Amino acid sequence: MNTTRTLCFVIASLSSYAALVYRLCQARRSWKDGAYRTLIATLLLQCLTFTMGALAMGGAPLLGVGNLAVLLMHLSAVAFCVSAQIILLRWAAADEEAVRKTRYWLITGIALDVLLTALFLLADGTGRPASDFDGTSEPLLLTYLLAFIVSQAIPCVTIYLQCGPYARMTDNASLRQALRLLSVTAVVLFLYCLARTVNILTAAFGVDIGPWKVAASVFSAAGIVMLSLSLTNSSWGPAATRLLEWARTYRSYRALYPLWRDLYESSPDIALEPPGAAVSDLDYRLHRRVVEIRDGWRDLRPYIDRTAGEGCDPAKEASAESRQAFTEAAQIKRALQAKLTDTVPQNNKDAGDFDDRDTSNFAAELAWLTQVAAAYSKLDKAS
């Protein structure tokens, strides 16, 4: 169990240092921005918190003082929670409101750190076994532990309550994504607070919950990784969004290939340019593929039997649109064979009944053709 807890501290620490280094690379152009300096301070405190946590798991005294790493971890955790709240204010609140609330959070953070230090010393925290900080029935140390949990839970609640309205107010897409991720982070870290409270109270009453004790460490590590991502989202978010859009475009481009290939072999004139494997200018190539599929489909009109392919979807619970996609795919497959043998069906499609879908909306057209192409591939494998 201690190995798992130590690993969670290491993961949280590494994600914090990665976020700090990533943000420090932008110092030259961003240092004059107060929000950026607050962000760097938050990440430094975050790194300190989980570095001290990893050291505390070792059990050895820090600088010769017993449990000093535990105290420093808790004090820096309070400071970094306050700093994260201040970042949120600087991101979303008006200047006067941000200054007023920043002053309030700074005073609260200092008061909490003074209270924790006093309770730690009164409870003889330096002379106690490290295991007592997992939970104890000793009143002063129990008060210290519960006060620390409250200091972590309150910012989680306030950040969660503020992120939703702030995300709806902003027009900045990357900031909106960061705020939404931050609200999820607040929930995960609040679950850490609940799990940690259960650990403390069960230990105080002598109840052993076994491996469930590690849940708090897992929630903490997951929350800190998510926090590191949310605090750096404005930098990597736009690039990640572009990458995801490219991946979706490429997936659609590849999904259409089997249908396009057979239509191209049947009607080579549909291609504006010779086909190739390059994926540069992918948006243009995807548009061309959609247009060429439609052109090849039109060339097949004399060979498409309108009565063919009905009920060919093997899934009984399939939607009406899915059944239609399978029907159209089966008609295309049969029409390609009919064209090879120059066999014109009696009940074929004419120009008047071909375009039964809205082709002016590219996103809808792409989604529909992707369904047809997927059905076509299934029929190809089944034949």
Can you summarize the main beta sheet?
none
| Relative strand content | under 5%
Arithmetic mean of pLDDT? 82
Indicate the percent of residues in helices.
over 70%
Q: If helices are DSSP runs of H or I spanning 4 or more residues, what is the number of helices?
A: 12
Q: Which radius of gyration do the C-alpha atoms yield?
A: 31 Å
The low-confidence parts are none
Instruction: Return the string of H and E elements.
Output: HHHHHHHHHHHH
The counted number of beta strands is 0
Describe this structure in words.
Keywords: Membrane, Transmembrane, Transmembrane helix. Residues 245-377 form the DUF6545 domain. It comes from Streptomyces virginiae (Streptomyces cinnamonensis). This is DUF6545 domain-containing protein. Pfam families: DUF6545. The protein is mainly α and 383 residues long. It is built from twelve helices and no strands. The chain has helices at 2-24, 27-30, 34-58, 68-92, 95-122, 139-169, 173-204, 215-255, 257-266, 282-299, 320-340, 362-382. It is elongated, with a radius of gyration of 31 Å. The two termini are 55 Å apart. The model has no long low-confidence stretch (mean pLDDT 82).
What is this structure, in a nutshell?
By secondary structure, the protein is mainly α.
Write the layout of secondary structure elements.
Blueprint: H1 2-24, H2 27-30, H3 34-58, H4 68-92, H5 95-122, H6 139-169, H7 173-204, H8 215-255, H9 257-266, H10 282-299, H11 320-340, H12 362-382
Helix pairs in contact: 1-3, 1-8, 3-4, 4-5, 4-6, 5-6, 6-7, 7-8, 8-10, 9-10, 9-12, 11-12
